[in-house]
Amino acid sequence: MTWRFALVIDPVAADDERGGYRDTFTPIDPSEPALSVGELSTQRGDGIFESIGVVDRHPQEVGAHLERLAHSAALCDLPVPNLRQWREAVDEVALRCPPAGEGVVKLILSRGVEHGPAPTAWATAAEAPDNSRARRDGVSLATLDRGYAMDVPSRAPWLLLGAKTLSYAVNMAAIREARRRGADDALFVSADGFVLEAPTASLVLRVGGRFLTPAPTGGILHGTTQLSLFERLEALGHETGYETMPVSRLAEADAGWLLSSIRLAAPIRAVDAVTYDIDAELTASINEYLLSPRD
Ligand code: PLP
Predict the structure, then answer these.
(1) What is the similarity comment for this entry (predicted)?
(2) Ligand 1 centroid from CA 215, angstroms
(3) Which of 14, 88, 136, 208: disulfide with 80, CB 3.0–4.6 Å?
(4) CATH of 133-290, one of 1.20.1290.10, 3.40.50.10890, 3.40.50.360, 3.20.10.10
């Protein structure tokens, strides 16, 4: 990723209302070191983040991303983010994405420096990686046991399942394991046999003409891209739904997609031994929609 711009944010209280928040932003050189060695985000992965897709400098679905940032902050006992301040930071940073084509805005809220008084926060702009191949040729997936049953998120909220924390080491390890097994990506399955999500994307299956996604109650992230796609599919008259999906659902589907803010819709070619035909026309129209300005 080519970093183009970075901004340190001095987080203000959630109820701090002012004309603008520019004086709480400090642009920094993205190629220079910037974090203290005491940063808990780097020492412990103790913080949260959001990755927002940007198309022709338009940041996509900012409201949904900021809502999820606030949800992750609540789960992690971080201070409530001031969403007006964060929205202004997104707008400021998105302006530094490529004028035409795809970019990425990343928001990070960390617990801060060890023994320090305040959380640290920053936002970056970068060019998006080229995802055209995954969008066209699709991905193969290997199912991997996530090791948690479906009731774990409510039984053990301290595991922070459902928060978008900076601790993605497990997710990255799952992708490496999937690759060792000859697949492109992983699909997490709960210990009691229910389909969850990929390490960096939501799952949508088409079953009997209905578009289904695993219910976010199972300790998965509620994907902003999946939410946006469901809105679109419903407007086009398609039926959508959230389901607690046993692994057997995979064999009943006739198509599937991984969905995320940067890769957008990658059609699924196979999950383990189950193969799908790629619906190239529908996939292209989904990605065309996902690349149009969305709020
Ligand atoms: N699930 C996980 C674990 C993710 O990391 C992501 C995105 O990074 C998603 C789902 C998809 O979320 P979104 O569509 O908001 O990018």
Answers:
(1) Belongs to the class-IV pyridoxal-phosphate-dependent aminotransferase family.
(2) 14
(3) 14
(4) 3.20.10.10
Residue 215, C-beta contacts closer than 8 angstroms, at least 6 positions apart: 242, 243, 244
Q: How many residues does the chain have?
A: 295
Q: Does the Cβ of 213 fall within 6 Å of ligand 1?
A: no
Cβ of residue 72 lying under 6 Å from some atom of ligand 1: no
Residue 225 CA, closest ligand 1 atom number? 14
SS3 120: strand
What ipTM was reported for this prediction? 0.99
Q: Which atom of ligand 1 is nearest to the CA of 61?
A: 15
Q: Are 146 and 190 in contact (CB under 8 A)?
A: yes
* DSSP helix/strand/coil, 282: helix
Residue 176 burial by CB count (10 A; 0-12/13-18/19+): exposed, middle or buried? exposed
Q: Model pTM?
A: 0.97
Q: How far is CA 240 from CA 42, 226, 258, 283, in A?
A: 39, 11, 16, 16
- Where do the structural domains in the chain lie, given as residue ranges? 3-128, 133-290
pLDDT tens digits, the chain, 295 residues: what are they? 788 999 999 999 999 999 999 999 999 999 999 999 999 999 999 999 999 999 999 999 999 999 999 999 999 999 999 999 999 999 999 999 989 999 999 999 999 998 887 899 999 999 999 999 999 999 999 999 999 999 999 999 999 999 999 999 999 999 999 999 999 999 999 999 999 999 999 999 999 999 999 999 889 999 999 999 999 999 999 999 999 999 999 999 999 999 999 999 999 999 999 999 999 999 999 999 999 999 9
Q: Is the CB of 228 under 6 A from ligand 1?
A: no
Distance of alpha carbon 207 from alpha carbon 272, whole angstroms: 18
Sheet of strand 102-110: strand arrangement: 25-28, 3-9, 120-127, 102-110, 47-55, 58-59
